[in-house]
């Protein structure tokens, strides 16, 4: 990669803000893990896929769950299988190697070319999880005591880590990473994003629905504000249902695609009934 | 370079560590970045600030440090012409040279200051009539003159660049991230995140984890016949009581308390969670509903929920003196309390050694006789994300184990 000019520039189906592109490139050059935080639906996970497309590298996805342990990402030693095989004479169990299975991180280290490793929703796991990966991500190597072998990355993978801030990440971990918070896109940006997904949908419909969407987001006290993916679903539904554009300004058809909880639906309905779309003074 | 900025950030409350500063400088020295203020703003933020909660403080520091730099509409077209098609990226400088330049810059700074530098820049602009690349004095690309583009001179003046030049200070000026500050907001998700820390793991869960050591032991004893042994999984053993003030003075904080409440009720990881309400102060009854209609005697609370429960009381602790210290002092005329509120609070404290009081009013307004009195009984924290974290730390501290 030549300095500054090349590198990641966003991809066809993903619109990255300029600062984000810069930061992606810097983290690639310095080979530091990039931690991406932001509201749900701001395209954190998609970023990794977009980098994959733009740079044409292989993407390894490690989906983190609440039960995921750091060691799972390195390797798993299938002791039970070995124990089971030990009962029968037909297999040679002296070779431990066949019971060692590399995890996602291990795979990313052992490939012959540079890959992109996405550690998705790292905050889902136990609070200690990121700390357990500190050294591995720093050195890009780990030791398998069973084999007395060290797996070392041939090419340091590009590591993208996403977090929903369900749990805070430990400072020691963050210190080794580059951090970026994806802001919720503004109306203009949102229009570009929608355009990328639905290039054929009538412009007026897009504009009106986006306007409506931001109106909905500013209602105070919604349990879950609708996010980009919900807007995309909604627009899709509107287009497919052939809803009259006038109707969007007066009411909210297909509200279910935007709001996912009963309380929010109730609240919005009341809001719609009380001021029917226009602003009016309400008694406090 | 601009090591002062590092200290300014720390002074503003951004927890920047030396490691982070070094990697940031490394990013700058590697030279693949075009050195303009916008890059500096975003790259600096990515390297130095690791939580959106500190973005606002970063903005403040950035504005203070770099806010003075403004690009003025000089005869820019002419200069831009010279700066087109830079000959190279950075001149390759050795450490000594960079050190030398730093010294030079310091001297320059001391000698002239920014205004003076701007003046010199203008003067040099007048003298200069053609393009210069590299070199030390003239305005041009590459090189180490303090004036120009794509070059290196710490703190020198940069001219032009991309269209988004100079807006970094403006972005910092906007302070878009004000609402992300820790000490200001507390939304449901963040609150849940904080509450998740409230846990004590014990092996009390279902018998479902494979105990490998035991299994191997047992299997060996059985002479190779596999015997799987399972043990209990770890589970959170925290039991929580939430007591909330519904008094009139709490109305302004209803939203805040609502968030804490919804976060706590949505949490699924507590062993047990119970909530009760009270009006201004706790007397012989607490209430199971917000309108204080269904009462539960406080004594009953003690017997129903054992002393292992952690208790969080939310209230502004602000009331009339008599409400806390007098018999029959309760604000509701139809309610008569034989014991003053303060005694009930003491009893709660004695029964539940792990009790904290969360106060939604900002700390600077806590100077009030009843607030003082109550904060002497219970450790009191602000109802902010930071306060909540401190409170949870106090609740889970192992120092004073409740006596059996």
Structural commentary:
The complex is a heterodimer of chains A (284) and B (404). In chain A, α9 (203-217) packs across α10 (228-241). In chain A, β6 (141-144) and β7 (149-152) form a beta hairpin. Chain A is built from 13 helices and 9 strands. Chain A has helices at residues 18-29, 44-55, 70-74, 79-86, 104-110, 129-139, 171-175, 187-197, 203-217, 228-241, 245-250, 255-258, 262-275; strands at 34-38, 58-63, 75-77, 100-102, 115-120, 141-144, 149-152, 158-163, 178-182. Chain A folds into 2 domains: 18-182, Rossmann fold (3-Layer(aba) Sandwich); 187-275. In chain A, the strands form 3 sheets. Chain A has a 5-stranded parallel sheet, with helices on both faces. Chain A has 284 residues and is of the alpha/beta class. Chain B has 404 residues and is of the alpha/beta class. Chain B has 3 domains: 3-180, no CATH class; 196-200 and 237-396, Rossmann fold; 206-234, no CATH class. Chain B has helices at 3-11, 18-29, 37-48, 55-66, 76-83, 95-127, 167-174, 188-196, 212-221, 254-266, 298-304, 321-325, 341-351, 369-377, 385-396, and strands at residues 140-141, 147-149, 157-158, 201-210, 230-236, 239-245, 272-278, 285-287, 295-297, 310-314, 355-359, 380-382. In chain B, the strands form 4 sheets. In chain B, strands 7-6-10-11-12 form a 5-stranded parallel sheet. In chain B, α2 packs antiparallel against α3 (37-48) and α8 (188-196) packs parallel to α15 (385-396). The chains are: A alpha/beta (284), B alpha/beta (404). The A-B interface holds A 3-4, 18-19, 22-23, 25-27, 29-30, 32, 35, 37, 79-80, 83-84, 86-87, 127, 165-169, 171, 174-181, 183, 221, 223 and B 15, 17, 19-20, 23, 26-27, 30-34, 38-39, 42-43, 45-47, 49-52, 55, 89, 164, 176, 180, 188-190, 192-193, 196-197, 210, 212, 215-216, 219, 224-226, 228, 255, 258, 262.
